[in-house]
Design brief:
Layout (H helix, E strand, L loop, with lengths): L17 H19 L6 H7 L4 H4 L6 H24 L5 H18 L2 H9 L6 H27 L9 H22 L5 H17 L4
Helix pairs in contact: 1-2, 1-4, 1-6, 4-5, 5-7, 5-8, 5-9, 7-8, 8-9
Length: 211
C-alpha cells in the first residue's frame, strides 16, 4: 500500500469583500511585475502571492485578461491622480512642468513595477484592448504637456523656436527612459533625484533652441 502526503492547505485568511480582494490582487501583480517582469507572471504566482487557491482567484476575475485590465486601470487611475494634482497646483507653466515631471518620478519610485506593466501592455497584440487604452492615456498625457510647453514658449520662458509637440514627446520619453534605466539598475529609490537633475538639463535645452 502506498501512502500519500496530506494535501497542503493554504493558511486561513480573513474573508474580504470582493472589491478589497480585487484590490489586493492588483497590488500583488504590481509587486510581481517589479520582481520578475510582467511576461513571467502566471496566474498561479498571483494566487500564491495573495494566498488564494487558483480557483479562488478566478472567483474575482473572469480570466487573466481581466486581471491585466484591472491592473492597468489601477495604474491609469493612480498615476493619473498624481499627474492631475501636479497640473492643478498652479504657478508658471515651467513650474507646472517641473512639478508634473517630479510627480511622475515619485510614482515610479513608489511603484517600480508600474512602468514595466505599461511597457508590457504596449508590446504585441496579446492584450490589444489594453494596448489601445495605454496608447490613448500616453497620447492624452503628451497633449497636456504640449499645451503647457506652448504656454511657456508663448510667455517667453522657453525658446520661440520650440515645437511643443516635439518637446512633449521628449518630456514623456525622458521619464520612460529614466524608469527603464532605474529598473535595470534596481535603484528606483534614486529616481526622484535623477529626475530633478534631468529636468534641469531638459529645460536648458528647451530654452536654448535657436532657429
Amino acid at each position: 500500500m502506498t501512502t500519500r502526503d496530506p494535501p497542503v492547505s493554504l493558511p486561513s485568511r480573513r474573508r474580504l469583500p470582493s472589491h478589497e480582494r480585487r484590490a489586493e490582487i492588483v497590488a500583488a501583480v504590481v509587486e510581481l511585475a517589479r520582481e520578475r517582469g510582467p511576461e513571467a507572471i502566471t496566474t498561479q504566482a498571483i494566487a500564491d502571492r495573495v494566498a488564494l487557491t487558483h480557483g479562488a482567484l478566478f472567483r474575482h476575475f473572469a480570466d487573466k485578461d481581466a486581471i491585466w485590465g484591472a491592473v492597468f486601470d489601477w495604474v491609469r487611475s493612480d498615476l493619473g491622480a498624481a499627474i492631475d494634482a501636479a497640473f492643478a497646483g498652479g504657478g508658471s507653466p515651467v513650474e507646472i512642468l517641473e512639478r508634473v515631471f517630479l510627480a511622475h518620478a515619485r510614482f515610479i519610485a513608489r511603484h517600480p513595477g508600474a512602468p514595466r506593466i505599461l511597457y508590457h501592455a504596449l508590446q504585441g497584440a496579446e492584450h490589444a484592448a489594453t494596448h489601445e487604452r495605454v496608447h490613448s492615456m500616453v497620447a492624452a498625457y503628451t497633449r497636456r504637456v504640449a499645451a503647457c510647453l506652448r504656454d511657456a514658449r508663448d510667455s517667453g520662458a522657453l525658446s520661440a523656436a520650440l515645437d511643443p509637440q516635439v518637446g512633449a514627446t521628449l518630456f514623456v520619453a525622458t521619464l520612460q527612459g529614466l524608469a527603464l534605466q532605474r529598473s535595470l539598475l534596481g535603484g528606483e529609490g534614486g529616481i526622484v533625484d535623477a529626475a530633478r537633475a534631468t529636468f534641469s538639463l531638459l529645460l536648458d535645452g528647451m530654452r536654448g533652441v535657436r532657429q
